């Protein structure tokens, strides 16, 4: 009988536990115990139902292109609950010089694939548009070192593209700044395009041509979620696990290799296992492994995290009808606002709110979140309301009224920051980890911070220990 400890009850740890539970039920040769320091399982997957609205405290969806979260949903019986984003109304605006400007059609992240919409867009100056045209003639380039996303984008398209597009887009995903994020870790596909084609525009056009020459398939929605909210994934997984194997309110103080296995220290108590999956943020993993390997602990501790705040506001039908169509807007840091983004949830996922409600989800992260962190919830809502009125303009009078409800959710040090040299650090971590048999790592600190990446990391950790 193989006994495995899982430390951390977020989605990574739950995904690992689900695979171990399946093995336990079929092969009967494995037992597991999952330890979670808080009173609830699911980590940042947290949903509230308020006044008929489905309000997400953490991630509201996941990228459809990455299949691992949707696959897990189907495995636990939630396949019929999967919903796609309303891409027919997908528009995103960028706040530019105080007004909302729609991102032009055909812009793939920052790479234009349609010349006319980009050329006519007021989002970019003529200088940047000229850079876009010149970029098509970049020769292939093999870069033998990592660099920041900002440096990479500036090399191809200029600083305006960094300020108005790359930085706000990445702030909404990673909660960090493009000047400190690794292009190889965050935009690996673009780094490879530069190596093979030189020009990102040429690479995108070639990929688009290949896709259009094949059989026509309906494009899947960009985002996928669950009808009753993301928390239902965590709750359903927990319902499929062995209740006796779940230990909430049980922080792990340290782990130590011993007698061909691992001892998990809970303070006054200690339990012995054959293997351990640590599914914590990298900084917390560093603390747990401090006495095991100082080198591994140091590498893990060097992975930085940023904090975020999500604010949900609901308004009446007047506001819903007055808001611009689309999914919401992004705010470049150069606009000197504290708010980084806002999603019009009722447009992105119509199932999330009654037809007479506007549901807005507003976002702070990184230094912007820290600037309001110590304010009360009421004060944070006040900041959001003030900046929404400034951004959306006086024509939406309903925004001056008190919202029908407001919710504030704070997530301290929850978003991993993949700094320059991150992939090289992961290689060092992997060498050090493999020197400790029976140890696996999972979570958002390594190869992706989204829900699908966390699911994949947890299931791969379980698979490695089982094989």
Please render the helix and strand layout as text.
Elements: E1 2-7, H1 11-27, E2 30-35, E3 47-50, E4 53-56, E5 62-63, H2 68-75, E6 82-84, E7 92-96, E8 99-102, E9 107-108, E10 111-112, H3 115-120, H4 126-135, H5 149-157, H6 159-174, H7 183-186, H8 188-197, H9 200-213, E11 223-226, H10 231-240, E12 246-247, E13 254-258, E14 261-265, E15 270-273, E16 275-278, H11 282-288, H12 294-301, E17 304-315, H13 317-322, E18 328-330, E19 341-344, H14 345-348, E20 358-365, H15 366-372, H16 377-392, E21 405-417, H17 422-434, E22 439-441, H18 451-466
Parallel strand pairs: 1-2, 1-16, 2-12, 7-18, 16-22
Antiparallel strand pairs: 3-4, 5-11, 6-11, 7-8, 9-10, 13-14, 14-15, 17-20, 17-21, 18-19, 19-20
Helix pairs in contact: 1-10, 1-18, 2-18, 5-6, 8-9, 11-12, 12-17
Describe what you observe in this structure:
The chain has helices spanning 11-27, 68-75, 115-120, 126-135, 149-157, 159-174, 183-186, 188-197, 200-213, 231-240, 282-288, 294-301, 317-322, 345-348, 366-372, 377-392, 422-434, 451-466, and strands spanning 2-7, 30-35, 47-50, 53-56, 62-63, 82-84, 92-96, 99-102, 107-108, 111-112, 223-226, 246-247, 254-258, 261-265, 270-273, 275-278, 304-315, 328-330, 341-344, 358-365, 405-417, 439-441. With 467 residues, the protein is an alpha+beta fold. The chain folds into three domains: 2-43 and 233-303 and 418-466, FAD/NAD(P)-binding domain, CATH 3.50.50.60; 107-213, protoporphyrinogen ix oxidase, domain 3 (Orthogonal Bundle), CATH 1.10.3110.10; 305-416, Polyamine Oxidase, Chain A, domain 2 (Alpha-Beta Complex). The chain has a seven-stranded mixed β-sheet with strand order 8-7-18-19-20-17-21. A five-stranded parallel β-sheet has the order 12-2-1-16-22, covered by helices on one side. A three-stranded antiparallel β-sheet has the order 5-11-6, with helices on one face. A hairpin with a 2-residue loop joins strand 7 and strand 8 (99-102). Helix 1 (11-27) packs parallel to helix 10, helix 1 packs parallel to helix 18 (451-466) and helix 12 (294-301) runs antiparallel to helix 17 (422-434).
């Amino acid at each position: 009988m193989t006994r495995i400890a899982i430390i951390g009850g977020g989605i990574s740890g739950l995904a690992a536990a689900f695979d171990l539970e399946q093995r336990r039920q079929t092969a009967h040769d494995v037992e597991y115990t999952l330890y979670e320091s808080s009173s609830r399982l699911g980590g940042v997957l947290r949903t509230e139902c308020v006044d008929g609205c489905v309000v997400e405290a953490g991630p509201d969806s996941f990228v459809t292109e990455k299949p691992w979260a949707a696959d897990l949903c189907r495995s636990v019986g939630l396949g019929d609950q999967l919903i796609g984003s309303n891409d027919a109304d997908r528009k995103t605006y960028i706040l530019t010089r105080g007004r909302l400007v729609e991102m032009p059609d055909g812009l793939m992240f920052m790479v234009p694939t349609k010349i006319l919409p980009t050329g006519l867009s007021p989002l970019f100056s003529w200088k940047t548009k000229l850079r876009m045209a010149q970029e098509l003639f970049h020769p292939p380039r093999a870069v033998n070192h990592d660099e920041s996303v900002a440096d990479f984008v500036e090399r191809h398209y200029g600083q305006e593209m960094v300020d108005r597009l790359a930085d706000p887009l990445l702030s909404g995903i990673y909660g960090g700044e493009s000047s400190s994020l690794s292009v190889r870790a965050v935009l690996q596909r673009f780094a490879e395009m530069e190596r093979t084609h030189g020009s990102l525009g040429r690479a995108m056009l070639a990929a688009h041509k290949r896709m259009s020459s094949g059989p026509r398939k309906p494009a899947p929605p960009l985002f996928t979620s669950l009808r009753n909210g993301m928390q239902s994934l965590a709750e359903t997984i927990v319902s499929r696990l062995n209740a006796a194997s779940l230990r909430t309110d049980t922080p792990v103080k340290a782990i130590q290799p011993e007698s061909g296995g691992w001892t998990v220290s809970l303070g006054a108590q200690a339990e012995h296992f054959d293997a351990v999956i640590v599914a914590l943020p990298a900084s917390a993993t560093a603390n747990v492994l401090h006495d095991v390997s100082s080198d591994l602990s140091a590498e893990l501790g060097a992975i930085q995290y940023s904090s975020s705040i999500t604010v949900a506001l609901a308004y009446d039908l007047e506001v819903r009808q007055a808001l611009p169509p689309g999914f919401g807007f992004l705010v470049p840091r150069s606009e000197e606002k504290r708010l980084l983004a806002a999603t019009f949830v009722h447009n992105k996922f119509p199932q999330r709110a009654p037809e007479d409600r506007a549901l807005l989800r507003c976002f702070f992260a990184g230094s912007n979140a820290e600037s309001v962190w110590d304010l009360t919830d009421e004060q944070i809502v006040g900041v959001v309301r003030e900046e929404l009125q400034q951004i959306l303009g006086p024509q939406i009078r309903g925004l001056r009224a008190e919202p029908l409800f407001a919710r504030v959710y704070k997530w301290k040090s929850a978003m991993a920051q993949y700094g320059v040299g991150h992939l090289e650090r992961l290689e060092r971590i992997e060498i050090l980890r493999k020197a400790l048999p029976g140890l696996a790592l999972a979570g958002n600190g390594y190869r992706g911070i989204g829900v699908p990446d966390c699911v994949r990391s947890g299931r791969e950790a379980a698979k490695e220990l089982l094989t």
